[in-house]
Every structure is written in structure tokens, then in C-alpha cells.
Write a structure and sequence with these properties.
Order of helices and strands: HEEEEEEEHHHHH
Number of strands: 7
Mean pLDDT: 80
Strand content: 5-15%
Low-confidence stretches: none
Strand order of the largest sheet: 1-4-3-2-6-5-7
Length: 298
């Protein structure tokens, strides 16, 4: 089939228009057919106003954007971000993600630290190490509380330093001046005595230092002798302890012999008492074997 030149031109124009329209639609929808970006995950408790499309920086350099953000299913106290980064960004295993801003009024963004140069690269799709950093407003909150406390203290101080308080303080100062004026001589005498006592203490301290320095060798020798005495005393105590242990061992091992000796001593004591009583009653037993004959009464 033969086409007329007009039809060919019309077909070319329609084809080009269709291609331009498709490119325009792709550009508007944000699609990138030649996309070579990589994605990472990050979780934070506070977003600081981050939204889908917010900037992601790597070491402060713009490196990507926030593609998606959702509440974590396993921990609803955290927000999970899907970060899209350029494929050439070398995210390390020890890179740390933080939510921050440039300056006080700067827009919030996610910054990823560069990590250590010897660290290995983090595979795409992995979870980044995240660190919570307080925002400017969170830091300003305690400062505002401090300012409020200072203001309250100022009002309290102003109230305390009212007219009545100032008059009372003035009266106290006047009375103090009067007291010092009336007792000026006594105060001067006390100060003089304090100065003399300070001088005497200084002289005493100097004499003590001189005495210690002059007898330093004697004191050192005394300390050495004291140490030797303590060592000897310690040895003596150890010897006494050892001796007592030996005595205890003897008492334990030879206890039955001691019981026999004590029993024999008790028997001997009884025999001596019996013998003494017998001698008192019959003293003739010392010189005779039998009793003398009884005397006949004439």
C-alpha cells in the first residue's frame, strides 16, 4: 500500500506527540524508567516534620529522599522510613542515621554519617543504625522553663525587697553601725588579741617544725624500733597462740590420763585425811603395832 506524503507526515506527528505525552506523564508522576537508586530503612520515635519527599543527606551532602513512611507494625511507638539513595552513595555498616536540620530555621532532613573508611558497605534494603537527636524545640523547652523560673524568682525577690523590707534592712544596718561605733574599742581589742593569738600560733608552728626537723633522725629510728617491736609482738602472739593450740591438743588427746591423775589425787587426799584422823585418835600407832594394855586402877 502506498501512503501519500501528507499521511506520512501526519503519522510522524502523531507518533512524536504520543512519545512526548508519555515522557511528560512519566515526568509528572515521578517515575524513572532508568532508575538505579537503592533503598534503606530507618526508624525514629519523632519525625520532626519529615514528609514523603524530604531530603536525605550523606555526610551533609544531598544523596536522596524519603520515599515512604509508616508506623511500624511490630512497634507502634516508632515511625519507619523508606529512604531512596543514589547507587553511588557508600553507606557503611557503622553509618548512623539522625533527624536533624541545617540551622535553627532550616528544614528537617535525615542525615547519614559517612562511617569508618575501613567498614564494609551496608547491603541495600538493610536497616540503618538510627540515633535520636533532640530537636531545637525540644532543647528550647527546658530553656523556657528556666527563663520562667528566673522570672518567678525575680518577682519573688522584688516582693521581698519591698518598701517594708528596705526599711527593715536600713534599720538593721543603722543599728549595726551604732553598735560598732559604741563598741569600737572592744572590737579593736578583740582584733588585736586575735592578731596576737595568730602570731603565737605561727611561732608555735615554727618551733614545732624546727623540733621535728632537729629530731627527725631520732623520730625515724623510733619509728623503726616501733616497727621491730610490733613485729616481735606479733611473733610472740603467734607463738602463744601455737602454744595454746598445743595445750588444747594435749588436753584433748591425753584427757583420759588427766582424769586418772585427778582421781588418784582425790583418793590420795582421802587417804591422807583418814590417816591424819587416825593419828589424832590413836597417836600410839606411830611407835607401836598394837594398842598398849589398859592400866589397872588400884
Amino acid at each position: 500500500m502506498n501512503y501519500k506524503p501528507q499521511e506520512i507526515k501526519t503519522g510522524i506527528i502523531i507518533t512524536l506527540s504520543t512519545i512526548i505525552l508519555l515522557v511528560f506523564l512519566i515526568a509528572i508522576s515521578g517515575l524513572d524508567c532508568f532508575n538505579t537508586d537503592k533503598q534503606y530503612l530507618a526508624r525514629f520515635n519523632y519525625t520532626s516534620g519529615l514528609e514523603i519527599g524530604s531530603t536525605v543527606r550523606y555526610g551533609g551532602m544531598k544523596a536522596g529522599s524519603v520515599k515512604d513512611m509508616t508506623i511500624c507494625e511490630d512497634d507502634n511507638s516508632k515511625i519507619q522510613f523508606v529512604l531512596t539513595l543514589d547507587e553511588n552513595i557508600p553507606v557503611k555498616t557503622n553509618s548512623i542515621a539522625t533527624v536533624t536540620s541545617i540551622g535553627i530555621m532550616g528544614e528537617s532532613h535525615i542525615n547519614i554519617s559517612t562511617g569508618h573508611p575501613d567498614s564494609s558497605l551496608l547491603p541495600p534494603g538493610s536497616m540503618l543504625i538510627c540515633k535520636e537527636v533532640p530537636s531545637i524545640m525540644q532543647l528550647m523547652e527546658p530553656i523556657g522553663q528556666i527563663a520562667e523560673n528566673v522570672n518567678q524568682s525575680s518577682l519573688e525577690l522584688k516582693r521581698m525587697l519591698g518598701q517594708d523590707t528596705r526599711l527593715e534592712l536600713q534599720s538593721i544596718l543603722t543599728n549595726l553601725n551604732t553598735l560598732l561605733s559604741q563598741n569600737q574599742s572592744d572590737v579593736k581589742s578583740i582584733l588585736d588579741n586575735l592578731n596576737k593569738a595568730t602570731i603565737e600560733l605561727s611561732n608555735l608552728s615554727s618551733r614545732m617544725n624546727t623540733l621535728v626537723e632537729s629530731n627527725q633522725e631520732t623520730i625515724s629510728q623510733s619509728l623503726v624500733n616501733l616497727d621491730e617491736t610490733l613485729v616481735r609482738t606479733k611473733n610472740l602472739v603467734q607463738n602463744l597462740d601455737s602454744m595454746m593450740q598445743n595445750v588444747d591438743n594435749i588436753v584433748v588427746t591425753k584427757g583420759y590420763h588427766l582424769s586418772e591423775i585427778i582421781e588418784n589425787l582425790n583418793q590420795t587426799t582421802n587417804n591422807l585425811e583418814e590417816f591424819s584422823r587416825s593419828i589424832k585418835e590413836q597417836p600410839w600407832q606411830l611407835i607401836r603395832k598394837s594398842a598398849p594394855p589398859e592400866r589397872k586402877i588400884k
